């Protein structure tokens, strides 16, 4: 799975990527050195738990994506079936374009994970 | 007669392995030979750098010495080296729980629970945090009543000098909410433009702690739940941003098959949370949300 993440990181605007289970466990990681992937995964676990509760209470259906951002960049979480792909986004990135360019990677990861499970 | 500690010392010299080093360090620590335990851990770290357990043992030693920051640093190294280290996650969760950092503590403990679901200590710690969170939630309405009373007496004014901006200290009960809204029709009106947008089902303004300031088109009880969960998400997102080197969060959006939730915030103070149909463009909502914060005198 790391090979896909490494390729994904070459897309313009992507500053790193991480695959986490729905519980926030790291499944694969391609982050820049110095970034604490466990700290990110722990926060993502809590975040996904809250997001799932909101989706249940307000009957929003299955979570497709989660975006968080500031003027210094952000993070996009995309559902890949049994896991979420977290993409670190550079501040200069065009989010719409990024979504298009990362779609094939999301599909590849979803396919691999679905085959495994 | 040769003690188990002596036998282990010899064995480690002849057949060094990470598990033997760790066992020796634990025995030495339990026997009160703290310096020896530390030395054994450090040798293990040098010779078996991928082994995370020696970091956990050394972290326990440092924590007992009162060096909590060093202990936390070692524990983060431990789970980085061994992402399945239940003892590492457990101790991280325990130390953060002692620091009252419940969200991070719960995150680490849940990682431990995901690896070892029936661990008694992990389950007990998670239950402890959930008890604390429930107690905090149960205790806050009394404070909210006091805050509302203070507001009614006109003690607190908005920065703009208009009607009082209630410093809500707890989830608003229906009575407090009714009292607050009866004296501040314009506060509710601040959400009119936002809720008038096509596809917007409802919206609310909440503070950083997840307490509702004002809500519109939300069912009873759901506003408080949405505000509380949104606050939790905002705090987790902020922690993620911090790990990535960014110190603030301005927006987040949860996109699901049958709807979306968007949150726009300002300086860890107040946020506007919008419940909308799928496909509604966030850009227009963001403009309206920012205007809502300005109208409320919070921006």
Characterization of the model:
- The complex is a heterodimer of chains A (117) and B (299).
- With 117 residues, chain A is of the alpha+beta class.
- In chain A, 43% of the residues lie in helices and 30% in strands.
- Chain A has a single domain (2-116), classed as Beta-Lactamase.
- Chain A has helices at 2-8, 37-57, 95-116; strands at 14-21, 26-30, 63-70, 73-79, 83-89.
- Chain A has a five-stranded antiparallel β-sheet, with helices on both faces.
- By secondary structure, chain B is α+β, with helices and mostly antiparallel strands.
- Helix content of chain B is 60%, strand content 11%.
- Chain B has a five-stranded antiparallel β-sheet, sandwiched between helices.
- In chain B, strand 3 (251-256) and strand 4 form a beta hairpin.
- In chain B, helix 3 (34-47) packs antiparallel against helix 4 (53-64) and helix 6 (86-98) runs antiparallel to helix 7 (102-115).
- At the A-B interface, helix 2, strand 3 and strand 4 of A face helix 5, helix 7, helix 12, strand 3 and strand 4 of B.
- Strand 3 of chain A pairs antiparallel with strand 3 of chain B, so a sheet runs across the interface.
Q: Strand share of the residues of chain A?
A: 25-35%
Spatial strand arrangement across the major sheet of chain A: 2-1-5-4-3
| Poorly predicted tracts of residues of chain B | 142-183
Q: Which outline of chain B best applies? A: elongated
């Amino acid at each position: 799975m790391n090979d896909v993440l490494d390729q994904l990181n070459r897309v313009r605007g992507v500053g790193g990527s991480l695959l986490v289970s729905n519980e926030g466990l790291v499944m694969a990681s391609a982050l820049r050195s110095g970034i604490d992937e466990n700290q990110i995964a722990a926060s993502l676990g809590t975040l996904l738990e809250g997001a799932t509760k909101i989706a249940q209470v307000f009957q929003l259906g299955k979570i497709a994506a989660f975006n968080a951002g500031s003027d210094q960049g952000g993070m996009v979480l995309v559902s890949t079936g049994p896991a979420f792909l977290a993409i670190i986004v550079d501040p200069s990135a065009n989010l719409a374009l990024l979504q298009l360019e990362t779609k094939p990677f999301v599909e590849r990861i979803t396919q691999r994970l679905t085959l495994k499970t | 007669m040769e003690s188990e500690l002596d036998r282990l010392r010899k064995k480690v010299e002849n057949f060094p392995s990470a598990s033997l080093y760790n066992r020796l360090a634990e025995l030495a620590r339990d026997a009160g030979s703290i310096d020896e335990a530390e030395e054994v851990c450090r040798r293990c770290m040098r010779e078996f750098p991928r082994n995370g357990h020696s970091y956990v043992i050394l972290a326990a030693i440092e924590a007992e010495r009162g060096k909590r920051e060093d202990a936390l640093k070692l524990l983060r190294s431990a789970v980085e080296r061994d992402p399945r280290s239940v003892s590492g996650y457990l101790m991280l969760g325990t130390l953060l729980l002692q620091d009252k950092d419940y969200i991070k503590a719960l995150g680490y403990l849940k990682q431990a629970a995901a690896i070892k679901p029936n661990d008694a200590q992990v389950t007990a710690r998670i239950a402890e945090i959930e008890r604390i969170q429930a107690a905090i939630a149960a205790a806050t309405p009394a404070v909210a009543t006091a805050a509302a009373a203070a507001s009614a007496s006109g003690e607190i004014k908005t920065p703009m000098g208009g009607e009082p901006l209630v410093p809500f200290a707890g989830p608003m009960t229906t009575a407090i909410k009714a009292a607050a809204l009866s004296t501040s029709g314009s506060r509710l009106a601040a959400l009119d433009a936002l809720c008038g947008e096509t596809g917007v089902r409802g919206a609310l303004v909440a503070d950083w702690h997840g307490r509702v300031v004002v809500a519109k088109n939300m069912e009873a009880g759901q506003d408080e739940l949405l505000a509380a969960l949104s606050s939790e998400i905002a705090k987790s997102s902020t922690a993620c941003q911090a790990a990535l080197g960014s110190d603030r969060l301005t927006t987040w959006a949860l996109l699901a098959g049958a709807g979306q939730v968007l949150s726009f915030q300002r300086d860890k103070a107040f946020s506007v949370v919008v419940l909308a149909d799928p496909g509604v463009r966030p850009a227009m909502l963001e403009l309206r949300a920012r205007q809502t914060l300005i109208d409320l005198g919070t921006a």
